[in-house]
Structures
1.
Amino acid sequence: MKPAAVFLGLACVVLAPGALGKTVEIRKAVVVKKTVAVKKTPVVKKTVAAKKATPAPSPSSPKLAQAKKVQPAPVSAPAAPDKAYDERELIRMPSPARLALRAEMRDRMAALDAVLQRMRDGQVVEAGQIAQIRLGVALWGNHSRLPQAAQPEQYMPPKMLTLALDGYKAASEFATVALTGDQHTATAMLPQLTGSCAQCHEAYRIR
Ligand code: HEC
């Protein structure tokens, strides 16, 4: 038992350093290889990829930079009033009258829009009601409720007044037909209504 134990002990002592040394070497080699492999490949790839990735969007980013540089240029100049040649006859009237006319015009535009929407939906009678109340001859003289200086009609030449009255009449004629529910005839009369708007706008301005 004793010699065998000694032999085993010696064997362990002799073998152990070699075995330990080998394992340490292997571990070191593996560790070094792994760390080198891990450190080299991802770092290099990452830096290269990052460097390559940045030039890729760079052509678009200078464009954006250029666009940003170009955009403020026209804005930096103050907005100047339009002085382009305008062949429409200028009708002079004080500011309150101009504002009143334009306010009425905007309501007429909205009313016309409402009329067209009802016609599209087949609500012909409703379209007629809107035209009667907001576009027709019932509006004639409505401005007399305004202060004297804000009444546009007094500044309008006779031809313009005729066009104004024609516009109200066209709306009332459309309304009369639409109120009967005759969609076909009412639709056929719409261009007469919109044509009155266009005719006056082509001829006159107030500013
Ligand atoms: C009798 C002439 C006349 C008729 C008819 C007429 N307009 Fe006008 N409208 C004018 C004038 C004048 C201006 C102001 C133009 C200017 O700015 O110099 C104007 C301006 C407008 C404006 C711009 C308002 C604003 O805020 O500047 C609208 C919208 C408009 N009209 C809609 C209509 C519609 C819709 C009709 C028909 C249903 C119509 N107009 C019929 C003379 C007319």
2.
Amino acid sequence: MKVVYLDFDKYQYDVHSLFKAFYPDEEVMVLVGKRGELQEKEAKIKDTDEIFTINNIETIEKNDLKKQIYTVLSEKTGKQLPWGNLTGIRPTRIAMNLLEEGKSDVEVTDYMKNTYFVSDEKLDLCLEIAHREQEILKDIDYENGYSLYIGIPFCPTTCLYCSFTSYPIGAFKNLVDEYLCCLEKEIDYVAENFKGKTLDTVYIGGGTPTTLEPAQLERLIGYLKDKLDFSHVKEFTVESGRPDSITRDKLKVMKKLGVDRISVNPQTMNDETLKLIGRRHDVKQLIDAFNMAREEGFDNINMDIILGLPGETSVEVSHTIDEIIRLGPDDLTVHSLAIKRGSRLYEVLHEKEIKGELKVPILSSINNTASMMEIAASGARKMGLTPYYLYRQKNISGNFENTGYARKGKAGIYNILINEEVQSIVALGAGTVTKRVYGNGRIERCDNVKDVKLYMEGIEEMIERKKELFK
Ligand code: SF4
């Protein structure tokens, strides 16, 4: 374990994240106070732990502190981090803001290099995306517009790595109609309170919205279109992530009601890995679902893949990319997986490993690498897709990023809006988060509870909270 002492209660989160980026496989403990005076916490420290002390942080600027820590740790470990000392999740936003202030590419590059030590490669990516985002968002009315998110928190089964609000549909089937009633109440609230505002994008996500039966999908989308003004909607997405939830009837309903973007997510094109991560579908089902969506006329299909999956090396990633190139989606999102100790997936793999059921020592091969990122990036470009948004996660595998690539004119506008936090997003359904973005960039949030039953019981209160937020 790495133990860091800070002499002042400031920047703890940033210091922790930066140490973690240098020591991803180790536990990091940040303590505020003097060494020897924090008895209870210090009782956890062992003789083998390495101790760092950082003084005078009350007076230092955050960026200067991070620069100093980065320099020391970089010398000590011999590592250069691709994103330098940046610990935030939206590096493109820094570049976007600077461009909007009128700075040139050279000025943005110099600033990000000197302040954050970002690598040349990531700087190029960041600037390319910032310019593309500016172009895509140029017609969006931040002040008078809004976007809508609807969460369907059900999935065919729960993937072992899932970190979203998701319940297996089998056990919740008889609650779905009541859940839709609650969504309708929230839609009524939106119709009443956002009159005169422009609805720019609509995103139905989850979970897996296509766990709904065709009639339920028709009911939900029909209600939405009935109550809200869709005349300015630039993009209407329904995540159809799990191929085992997609049927021709559902695709027909969505197409008929104007859904113009869907996602069909493989995560990997290797059956063995799909089994390991609990996806409960195979590659063939994915290919069939994708082809069926094309047959039904969907010309904007997104695919999500994950790098760093257990047991996968560059060989498996190359295979996944080759198969995806064959299908030719319009949008590809490349995620880096971080399997944390204690997570469900980690425990399951660990158990299998102990029982000798795994061919390779999986727990030592759950990291994304630069070469896998490169395979995915060059595959995307080979298909004519260019990067249009990126975000980072805490403890992301390999300290990399998640990147969305799209064909010209097919980029997911909602993805950029939620990532850059430049427009208010009204979110309906269990476990969703509504964000109000003010003109000066200030953001206020209000959360709907995650538990489906509590959400349904407390629906009036959820609506009241939104009223309060937007009053
Ligand atoms: S499909 Fe997505 S939301 Fe559903 S269980 Fe799997 S990871 Fe979670």
3.
Amino acid sequence: MKLPFALAQRFVAAEKFKETIPKIKAFNEKNIKVTLDLLGENVQEKSMADETVDIYIQLLDDIQHAGLTSSISIKLTMIGLDIDENYCRDNLFRLLNKARDHGSFVRIDMEGSAYTQQTIDIFKEAFKEYGNHVGIVIQAYLHRSGEDIPELADLGADIRLCKGAYKEPDLIAIQKMPAIREAFKEYAKILLEKTPFPRIATHDDELINWTLHYTSENNIPKERFEFQMLYGLREETMEQFARDGHHARVYVPYGTMWFPYFKRRLMERKENVWFVMNTMFKK
Ligand SMILES: Cc1cc2nc3c(=O)[nH]c(=O)nc-3n(C[C@H](O)[C@H](O)[C@H](O)COP(=O)(O)OP(=O)(O)OC[C@H]3O[C@@H](n4cnc5c(N)ncnc54)[C@H](O)[C@@H]3O)c2cc1C
């Protein structure tokens, strides 16, 4: 059954790239950068993974032609991680060749824990070859992040730090919010100390205020890190960050395969269900 897009539009910018352009321009005009994400995951057919890489390559061209300040985010299962790791890495490198030619940037989103090790392995290979044209995401709720963060920070990798959006068992991930927040802070300190430009991806006031306080106490200038939030959430806060001279970036998802992303947003916060209901009934 195809669900109406109206349901998702609180969190998903559009179904087609063209329709995202005015929205991205509006962010850029407010000094807010964008990361575009073509939605989709767990592709099982090579033909579809190949096609997805072509679409991403075209997207890098389209972003440039439209004059947008936007990088892209991808999921490795969109470009063949479920099919074969080497095939997926080759697909990523094909995309990164284009990103390097363009002087643009590709972030590898982090998916469920079944993919963490492979994602980090592929990222490390890509980082060796493409340096700061590629970045990764680390999820603070994973127990293993206590080792991954220092290792990737020592490489000087470009890391987006977030809490983690997938349902994971206690053996794999911290379950309680206060402990996730403590882990987030500990990792943010390491990233702020050791990496050139960490990305703090959260809507959580406690973590935002902690970051503002910690960076000011430790004389870490605003130019050295970035706040990131998801499309549809806390836009006014992002505008305020930009006005205050902070780097601010919104993650803008689009595409027809929006359902899994939309479901994760509903699951993580009950207020998000109300946002969606409001959008529906205002129409
Ligand atoms: C840019 C970006 C990229 C991401 N990439 C990934 C990824 O690659 N992999 C992955 O697993 N996850 C990713 N995530 C999702 C992330 O892991 C969390 O699931 C998600 O951000 C929710 O956690 P939170 O810290 O933002 O706030 P929550 O834990 O949802 O909320 C904590 C508190 O923050 C405040 N708050 C939250 N939302 C609002 C709001 N709209 N208005 C006012 N206050 C609010 C409330 O006080 C709330 O109690 C990404 C998130 C962002 C922002």
